[in-house]
Amino acid sequence: MSHRSGQYMMNHESSKKVAEKPPFDRSSSQDSLDDLSLDDYWREMENIKKSRENRHEEQEVVVVKEPDEGELEEEWLKEAGLSLLFFGDSAGDSQESMVFLSTLTRTQAAAVQKRVETVSQTMRKKNKQYQIPDVRDIFAQQRESTEKVLHGSELDSVRTNENQNEGKHDLASNLEMTENSPCLPEDAPVSETDINLEISFAEQAANLKEISKEKLLEKEEYNSLPNFRLPKDKTGNTRIGDLASQDMKKVCYLALIELTALYDVLGIELKQQKAVKMKTKDSGLFGVPLSVLLEQDQKRVPGTRIPLIFQKLISRIEEGGLETEGLLRIPGAAIRIKNLCQELEAKFYEGTFNWESVKQHDAASLLKLFIRELPQPLLSLEYLKAFQAVQNLPSKKHQLQALNLLIILLPETNRNTLKALLEFLQRVIDNREKNKMTSRNVAMVMAPNLFMYPGMSIKPNEQGEFVMAAGTAHVMHSLIKYQKLLWTIPKFIVNQVRKHNSKNHKKDKKDKAVKKLLKKMAYDREKYEKQDKNPSDADVPQGVIRVQAPHLSKVSMAIQLTEELKASDVLARFLSQESGVVQTLKKGEVFLYEIGGNIGERCLEDDTYMKDLHQLNPNAEWVIKYKPS
To answer: What does the pLDDT average to over 282-306?
Structure first.
């Protein structure tokens, strides 16, 4: 990057001439992203260049063979949980894929079909000896199973846009699922601030076909970021971390398919980069993979989810006060930062490092250095280009939807660390009246650190650098502003998981061995309940749920369902009966969980209406327990 320093300074000077601004302006326009005023961005690039020169560390460049389109799509099918279509060892594998396919919306199914066809063609060209299913056979089977569960009137109601694909073997007409792909009335008013999580994002985009990209861009000011609102859901919104791992895995599969479908509908190429295996450090602090850091940190502090050095650097910055002017923007001295790095590597885990000697701006420089030197970028190498492509989507709502799906797709360690970073950046912005760091300033300073990584090459032209600067700063700005929305799992995806679980459950029940086991379990349960000292717990009348709380003094309670009963009310009834040491429990420390039925396990929001949720999942059990930190 050092050979570009002259270019950075030229861009920096030209941006000053184009848009001279006072150092701080409290008007709303100052807090918006001005793509012509990139002073903070170019300054940060200069600081990064100097930092690299001072550390005198040559990054190992890994040369890898560029995968062809078929290999990329093959990797996509694997990441989407559909590799069993090609590489399954049994009929059961194929059947499992079919169950999953039956939950897809029309646009999701079309995205899958496109990738399956590409992989099939590539395999045939290479004469690979795999059992390659014909895409028409896959979805013909799926259509047959789908039509068995849909009434003719329902099928007719979802055949929207079918005339556009006449004569084609289009998956959109093979997988018409009213539950998953309801159509938006063409004249339905769309609020600029509401985010609809009940309907597939790609379906929403497809149903707004009459609004061209040009009109959307004209309607919205590039610089403005609307205040989107997350509507309340009576069955409760689901946050990342609320679901059990087996369901979260399905969420990730669906999020990738949905993201691809959204980009397809909007005509944006989704470039998913294949992960590169490269030699990395297996110990230390800087330039160490997040997974390695957490592994060594968890040996010292069990349950750690964010690297200890990352936590400590944020803590040190905050100890100095977030009102400091130019926080994050003013760098520490490069030589001092280099010496601090060496000292931290030697003394951090020994507990002998003198944190009092670290100045606030030095700590901020070290934090940015830590992020920048991760062998794989914090936003992940696989999806970094997809994050960058968000700026090309035609509306702010589409951009928010894409970022939501991308956050879900991040590896858990990256996602947790990014969340901690964004929360810290928001705290910095909350003090902008004194530190002069608006959301725009923070976005400009942080973008180079998140979107650059060791060995990364930049387009060798001024226009390419300018586009990257403006685009990545815009995405960074959106990540900060919308962070409270981005960690929400869309309801339509959760419903697809519920549907998948229900179909699998029905399939399992047909198995004789499973039936026999269930029968035995039912007999054992009945026998146990007859011996129970509290027989009233065995029978639960209609309209009543039994809530279990194995870790509280009152371990079980029957609760009458009413229209207004919320999860918080259920918790309150249990906690009101706690006494002694347990009385110190706070409502936020324990949660009500929905377990079983059509979901694996789901932590409930306090304002979840229990009767509505019970109707959605009548076979669930209800348990109060601690949520893992």
So the answer is: 93
At residue 27, the pLDDT reads 35
The conformation of residue 243, written as its DSSP 8-state character, comes to B
Q: What is the pLDDT of residues 245-268, one digit of tens each?
A: 999 999 999 999 999 999 999 999
To 10 degrees, what angle do helices 360-372 and 308-319 make? 150
Rounded to 5 degrees, what are φ and ψ at 590? -125, 150
C-beta of residue 325 within 8 angstroms of C-beta of residue 434: yes
Could you report the per-residue pLDDT of 23-40, keeping only the tens digit for each?
333 333 334 434 447 888
* Calpha distance 164→183 (Å, rounded): 16
Nearest to 622 by CA among 580, 602, 598, 594: 594
Look at residues 207, 83, 63, 68 and name the one whose alpha carbon lies nearest to residue 125: 68
* 234, 561 contact by CB (below 8 A): no
What pTM was computed for the model? Answer: 0.81
Please give the Cα distance from 66 to 72 (Å, whole number). Answer: 10
N- to C-terminal Cα distance for the chain?
Answer: 40
Question: How far apart are the C-alpha atoms of 175 and 105, rounded to whole Å?
Answer: 7
**Domains along the chain with CATH numbers:** 2-61+274-489 (1.10.555.10), 541-629 (3.10.20.90)
Which of 481, 88, 492, 78 has the alpha carbon at shortest distance from 258?
492
Is residue 377 within 8 A of residue 386, CB to CB? The reply is no
Largest CA distance in the chain: 85
pLDDT digits (tens, 9 = 90+) for 447-484: 999 998 776 655 555 667 788 888 999 999 999 999 99
Helices (H), 56-167: 69-79, 84-87, 91-101, 106-126, 135-148, 152-157
Half-sphere exposure of residue 379, counting CA atoms within 13 Å on the CB side? 27
Query: Hey, what's the torsion of the CAs at 425, 431, 432, 433, to 10 degrees?
Result: 180
Instruction: Measure the CA–CA gap between 241 and 245, rounded to whole angstroms.
Output: 9
Position 479, amino acid: L
Q: Which amino acid is at 75?
A: E
Closest CA to 593 of 623, 571, 565: 623
User: Letter for the amino acid at 237?
Assistant: N
Instruction: Kindly give the interhelix angle for 491-509 and 512-531, rounded to the nearest 10 degrees.
Output: 100
